[in-house]
Amino acid sequence: MTSILPIPWAADPAVAEPDVVTETTDETRLDTPWRVIVYNDEIHTFDEVIVQLIKATGCTTAQAEQHAWTIHTQGKDCVFQGEFTECFRVQGILREIQLVTEIEG
After folding, report:
1. Is residue 88 part of a domain?
2. What are the helix and strand counts (H, E) for the chain?
3. How far is CA 47 from the centre of its chain?
4. Does residue 4 belong to any structural domain of this protein?
5. Structural domain tally of the chain?
6. What is the residue range of 76's domain?
7. CA distance 71 to 54
Protein backbone atom coordinates (compact mmCIF):
# COMPACT_ATOMS: atom_id res chain seq x y z
CA MET A 1 0.00 0.00 0.00
CA THR A 2 1.29 3.46 -0.94
CA SER A 3 0.94 6.28 1.52
CA ILE A 4 0.83 9.93 0.58
CA LEU A 5 3.23 12.07 2.54
CA PRO A 6 1.97 15.47 3.63
CA ILE A 7 3.60 18.58 2.21
CA PRO A 8 5.78 19.92 5.06
CA TRP A 9 4.65 23.57 4.85
CA ALA A 10 0.99 22.53 4.65
CA ALA A 11 1.23 20.57 7.90
CA ASP A 12 3.20 23.18 9.83
CA PRO A 13 2.25 26.85 9.37
CA ALA A 14 5.67 27.86 10.75
CA VAL A 15 7.40 26.37 7.70
CA ALA A 16 7.49 28.90 4.86
CA GLU A 17 6.61 27.94 1.32
CA PRO A 18 9.66 27.44 -0.91
CA ASP A 19 10.62 30.27 -3.23
CA VAL A 20 9.39 29.74 -6.77
CA VAL A 21 11.73 30.84 -9.51
CA THR A 22 10.03 31.86 -12.70
CA GLU A 23 11.91 32.14 -15.93
CA THR A 24 11.04 34.93 -18.32
CA THR A 25 12.21 35.33 -21.85
CA ASP A 26 13.14 38.67 -23.26
CA GLU A 27 11.95 38.68 -26.85
CA THR A 28 13.58 42.05 -27.50
CA ARG A 29 17.02 40.53 -26.88
CA LEU A 30 16.96 39.09 -30.40
CA ASP A 31 16.37 42.55 -31.82
CA THR A 32 19.26 44.27 -30.05
CA PRO A 33 22.42 44.85 -32.06
CA TRP A 34 24.39 41.65 -32.61
CA ARG A 35 27.77 41.52 -34.33
CA VAL A 36 29.43 38.98 -36.61
CA ILE A 37 33.15 38.73 -35.92
CA VAL A 38 35.56 37.11 -38.38
CA TYR A 39 38.93 35.90 -37.08
CA ASN A 40 42.21 35.71 -38.95
CA ASP A 41 43.52 32.35 -40.07
CA GLU A 42 46.42 31.10 -42.14
CA ILE A 43 44.24 29.15 -44.57
CA HIS A 44 42.21 31.63 -46.62
CA THR A 45 43.56 34.10 -49.15
CA PHE A 46 42.55 37.75 -49.19
CA ASP A 47 40.54 37.15 -52.36
CA GLU A 48 38.59 34.26 -50.79
CA VAL A 49 37.71 36.35 -47.75
CA ILE A 50 36.74 39.37 -49.86
CA VAL A 51 34.46 37.37 -52.15
CA GLN A 52 32.77 35.66 -49.20
CA LEU A 53 32.28 38.94 -47.31
CA ILE A 54 30.58 40.48 -50.35
CA LYS A 55 28.39 37.39 -50.73
CA ALA A 56 27.45 37.31 -47.03
CA THR A 57 26.99 40.98 -46.23
CA GLY A 58 26.37 42.70 -49.56
CA CYS A 59 29.17 45.18 -48.85
CA THR A 60 31.22 46.81 -51.60
CA THR A 61 34.55 45.45 -52.77
CA ALA A 62 36.33 48.36 -51.06
CA GLN A 63 34.56 47.63 -47.76
CA ALA A 64 35.35 43.92 -48.02
CA GLU A 65 39.02 44.73 -48.74
CA GLN A 66 39.13 46.96 -45.65
CA HIS A 67 37.56 44.21 -43.50
CA ALA A 68 40.05 41.65 -44.87
CA TRP A 69 42.97 43.94 -44.07
CA THR A 70 41.70 44.59 -40.53
CA ILE A 71 41.17 40.87 -39.96
CA HIS A 72 44.73 40.23 -41.17
CA THR A 73 46.42 42.97 -39.15
CA GLN A 74 44.26 43.05 -35.99
CA GLY A 75 43.37 39.35 -35.82
CA LYS A 76 39.62 39.94 -36.10
CA ASP A 77 36.99 42.41 -37.28
CA CYS A 78 33.28 43.05 -36.92
CA VAL A 79 32.01 42.54 -40.46
CA PHE A 80 28.26 42.83 -39.86
CA GLN A 81 25.88 44.20 -37.23
CA GLY A 82 22.14 43.69 -36.97
CA GLU A 83 19.37 41.51 -35.60
CA PHE A 84 20.33 38.02 -34.46
CA THR A 85 18.57 36.24 -37.31
CA GLU A 86 20.42 38.34 -39.90
CA CYS A 87 23.73 37.77 -38.13
CA PHE A 88 23.01 34.04 -38.07
CA ARG A 89 22.37 34.12 -41.83
CA VAL A 90 25.58 36.08 -42.50
CA GLN A 91 27.59 33.72 -40.31
CA GLY A 92 26.23 30.72 -42.21
CA ILE A 93 27.42 32.14 -45.53
CA LEU A 94 30.85 32.99 -44.12
CA ARG A 95 31.19 29.46 -42.75
CA GLU A 96 30.51 27.96 -46.19
CA ILE A 97 34.27 28.25 -46.74
CA GLN A 98 35.10 27.53 -43.09
CA LEU A 99 35.92 31.07 -42.03
CA VAL A 100 36.26 31.28 -38.26
CA THR A 101 33.37 33.43 -37.02
CA GLU A 102 31.50 34.32 -33.87
CA ILE A 103 28.26 36.14 -33.11
CA GLU A 104 28.46 38.58 -30.20
CA GLY A 105 25.52 40.28 -28.58
Report:
1. yes
2. 4, 3
3. 26
4. no
5. 1
6. 44-105
7. 15
